[in-house]
Amino acid sequence: MRASILGGGPAGLYTSILMKRAFPDAEVGVWERNRADDTFGWGVVFSDETLGHFEAADPETYAEIRRAFAYWTDIETWIGGTWTRSTGHGFCGMSRKRLLEIFQQRARGLGVALNFQKDLPDESALPPSDVVIAADGIQSAVRGKHADWFQPTLDWRKAKFTWLGTTKPLKAFTFVFLETEWGVFQVHAYPFQPDLSTWIVECHEDTWRRAGLEHASEAETVAFCERIFAPFLGGHRLLSNRSIWRTFPTVRCERWSHGNVVLLGDAVHTAHFSIGSGTKLAMEDAIALVDAFKKHGAADVPATLRAYEEARRLDVLKLQRAAQTSLEWFENTARHVRQTPIEFTFNLMTRSKRITYGNLARRDPALVKAAAVDFASRNGVMPDTQGDTPPPAFVPIRFRDMQLENRVVVSPMCQYSAVDGIPNDWHLVHLGGRAIGGAGLVFAEATGVSSDGRITLGCTGLWSDAHADAWKRIVEFVHRSTRAKIGIQIGHAGRKASCNLPWQGDDPLRDDRAWRTLGPSANPFKRDWPAPKAMDRADMSRIEAAFARSTQLAHDAGFDVLELHMAHGYLLSSFLSPLSNLRTDEYGGSRENRMRWPLRVFEVARAAWPASKPLFVRISASDWLDPRGWTAEDSVAFARELKARGCDLVDVSSAGNTPESRVEYGRMYQVPFADQIRAEAGIPVMAVGGIQGIDHVNTVLAAGRADLCALARPHLTDPYLTLHGAAEAGVDVHWPNPYLAVKPRGRSASSAD
Asked: What is the pLDDT, as a whole number, of residue 752?
């Protein structure tokens, strides 16, 4: 087998080593445009978890790399005029130049042909090869030549960074967040040898322009950074090595191979430096690629390359998702710099969502305890005599006259089990059981304000006294038997109404049970769905009156809180999105016009709802189709308008206005939207979506990303999720009298009044 590798950086060299080691008779060559001793950047950093993979792949290079490592376990963060330290994190770093020397020496020793100063235009200039490995970096010529096949996307981000070195010795991974007259500048720094450290300076592009760095030379950049970070450098110098200001691109490819050509490392995918090393990611690619050849052989190279991609893609996707979340956090640090130093540091440590409250507590219990005390103290709960406070999930919160004992919410979940909109025993057991389970707030499902406002014939309603009386039975059980508060979500399904039950097709009714749906425009949700009627002003007035009536009935039933459903493509949501609202009158077109009627409905409901009771709104924060659809920035503007009209909290979901949405699902996947709205609109928020348990709730709250957390499916599998979480945390919470026999021992009984 002849393997030709385009690119002599760590990715290409390590691949050549592993390929030659696995197949000693193979002809392996590397072609690199630069000289052997050229390198750009300074150090590379790895985590403890990474090293085992490298040892198994090639013990010889692993041993040399380990001898060159600088080790540390701490992360030090400067914010708000103070240093905060987090410990228990295993890191190691080394000189990028030394890493290349190790790889070059090992490759030559194995018989790899290294060809430097060979600036080949693309793979066509290589000798005939069985496999071509394009490790030619972010600006990959091979990827560009075959772009129609690889289908790359390059997401050029909003921050600028410059990769510097410093003579200042560091003993920990160091973050510095500095507020300046131009905006926030931040440093990512770490040691890689006794007398040198990496010092990456990053800022938002707007800050970079305001500081006049748009046309700064390399020397001017160094002088500027030395000046603003002088208090942290302690007289040490910053060093440059092609340290120009750059914009980080997130690279993704739909396909990784084409015939016998495969992309590897930064040529096929990138991950922001804040989550780890691109070198690490590329080396793991090399291991997986050579493993594929060992398993599948070289008889059918395209098939082997497809097998490599299939085996590797999911791990890369997970890492890229975490890296993207981290990247976007650093783009927007201005949102968080006014947090307390402890809250900010916890936020920083958990930014990618891979590290959670519980995970961090095992690494650094002191920091997590400090974060819990900080959170509780800022919310009126003082430490006990041992200096302890409950975890954030169990810190009470108040909205107007409604006091919640904890911050766990049972999200509204349609049960599709009502008859003529009237809730029954199923709803009593469903909602009552979750209230018994300890959640601070339980929400009844999306409930139609009118018969034609239901999604299905099995959906609940609230448009008559009979509906209110049926709901009152459930509300009274919750109030009598538990400490939970109970709310109801009311709305109108709009063009997504008149559907079959999910287990009966989840598609539009097409028989005599169907009814005419409504929408802002006469365009259907899906092409084969019935077109809704484009609402006129008379329709709007009728729906406004229905919301007012339903709001009054919710009060009559005794609900503690009301939530208006303006999400998921239902009627009010469909007015907000330009993808569903095609009107040309005062209710369509501009964002202000599209917000007009949903805000009017809110005003109607607020006027009908007692001033002593809170009013929430659920929104879809994004259509996940920027910039065509409704965006997070639109949601911030909408939240500000809601706040000005007396909204107490925004419940932040996403998508639903169009089947075209490309939602990136994952753990806590909608929390960044909640975080942005909370920070920029200055309104309490409830996070929802992929929040899988109390550990996630504690993570979101302690980081200051939300005020409440709503969980849906976790409450279906465990109605007693909150009681179980309290028991695990050692928190004494209310248990109903009939259940005291199984309350964890050693804690006083807290029974119903």
From this structure: 39
